[in-house]
Amino acid sequence: MAGTGQRVMVVKSGGPSAVPEWREHFRVLLPDTELRCWTEPGNLADIGYALVWEPDEGRLAAMPNLRLILSSAVGVEHILADRMLPRHLPILRTVPGEAADQMAEYVAWAVLHLHRGIPLLQEQQARGHWQFHDPPLASARRVGILGLGSMGARCARMLAGIGFRVSGWSRGRKAIADVACHAGQGELPRFLADLDIVVCLLPATPETRGILGTENLARLPRGACLVSAGRGQQVPERDLLAALDAGQLSRAVLDVFENEPLPAESPLWRDPRIIVTPHVASLPSREARARFIADAIRRFEQGEVLPTLYDPALGY
Ligand code: NDP
Predict the structure, then answer these.
(1) Which residues are near ligand 1 (CB < 6 Å)?
(2) What distance in angstroms lies between residue 5's CA and the mean position of ligand 1's atoms?
(3) What burial class does residue 34 get, using C-beta atoms within 10 Å of its C-beta: 0-12 exposed, 13-18 middle, 19+ buried?
(4) What torsion do the CA atoms of 242, 245, 251, 252 make, to the nearest 10 degrees?
(5) Per residue in 131-150, is it b (16+ CB within 10 Å) or e — as a string?
(6) Distance between start and end Cα atoms, the chain
(7) Could you tell which of 101, 171, 231 is best to mutate to test the pocket of ligand 1, judged by most ligand atoms within 8 Å of the CB?
(8) From 46's CA, which of 32, 63, 199, 306 has a CA 20 to 30 Å away?
(9) 32 C-alpha to center of ligand 1: Å?
């Protein structure tokens, strides 16, 4: 039974071994909170908050006094997959500033890696072959970002700061200094046609599924490069490999995949044109996420509108 006036939060994120760390962070950040492990939730009627990654189907629906669902990640599709999800409840996307900074570091690394032709230099090193190349300056390289939300906008600013010619595409039109902003389906073909490197940072929704399939990859200039760090379902892997084989794409850096973990038999692992990273582009610490969540819960209880709530009308 929960103590009087005490809020109860159940946690499924990082497995039972992560619970002591979560408990310690919330003990400091939100002291009047009792934190329970998902596998030992006690009386379900006590639970007001659920901090989750991939909750088991039907478990959230069994908590009659749940007030707020807290995604332990930026995305929420791992919660929406629960067919018994109580759809009336708000879902918080956990987006600490650290998450966007980490994503921007990853994307800057990937773009610089491709821009400076490092894969070619690595191939030369493997052959003991000494040869110069003349990469253009960043100011001559066109980098476009699909998705200009908390992740994409931070990446756009960092890339523009390095000196790249940066453009971006989102649903509604954005205004970001030194970034050419495009909006809506109608402007997608023109946006794609003017890129050397395309970076995908869209959320997983029915509309973004397969967005970088054969049709849109064909709109890129021949030999363009891809950085994919939104969600794997946005880049069908068969279409990606076909575009690489045809020379339509020259290289790809992939952090997200249609099936994760990437199966051992996937050809992507061993393709020299591809760099595979295991969904590590942005991994904010538990402390940073707990800080963000504690602040959000306080504001939620004061009746404030939380800016990073999942919007069912938009699907992200
Ligand atoms: P946001 O919700 O802040 O931003 C999403 C962006 O995508 C917005 O600019 C939105 O447009 C745009 N968008 C969504 N749907 C469409 C559409 N149909 N057409 C055009 N634009 C669209 O999300 P974040 O930036 O915080 O995160 C983006 C995604 O990054 C996450 O959903 C997650 O999948 C992924 N991610 C990956 C990580 C990794 O480690 N690889 C870590 C963290 C996140 P508008 O601005 O007009 O709404």
Answers:
(1) 74-75, 95, 99, 103, 147-152, 170-172, 201-205, 207-208, 229-231, 255-256, 279, 281-282, 316
(2) 37
(3) middle
(4) 20
(5) eeeeeeebeebbbbbbbbbb
(6) 35
(7) 171
(8) 306
(9) 33
Residue 178 has pLDDT above 90, yes or no: yes
CA dist 5 → 28, 52, 62, 66, 276 (Å)? 17, 23, 22, 15, 48
Predicted local confidence at residue 135, as pLDDT: 86
Nearest Cα residue to atom 41 of ligand 1? 229
Whose Cα sits closest to atom 7 in ligand 1? Answer: 147
| CA distances for 193 relative to 14, 57, 116, 144, 223, angstroms | 41, 42, 21, 10, 12
User: Mind listing the pLDDT tens digit for each residue in 246-278?
Assistant: 999 999 999 999 999 999 999 999 999 999 999
Amino acid at 100: A
| Angle between the N-to-C axes of helices 97-115 and 118-126, in degrees from 0 to 180, rounded to the nearest 10 | 60
Rg value, the chain, Cα: 22
Q: Quick one: 303 exposed, middle or buried, by C-beta within 10 A (0-12, 13-18, 19+)? A: exposed
Catalytic positions, written as ranges: 231, 279
Reading the block at residue 211, the tokens are 């967005």
Residue type, 22: W
| Residues 290-304 pLDDT 10s | 999 999 999 999 999
Tokens of 29: 């950040």
State how far the alpha carbon of 39 is from the alpha carbons of 44, 48, 277, in Å.
Answer: 12, 16, 31
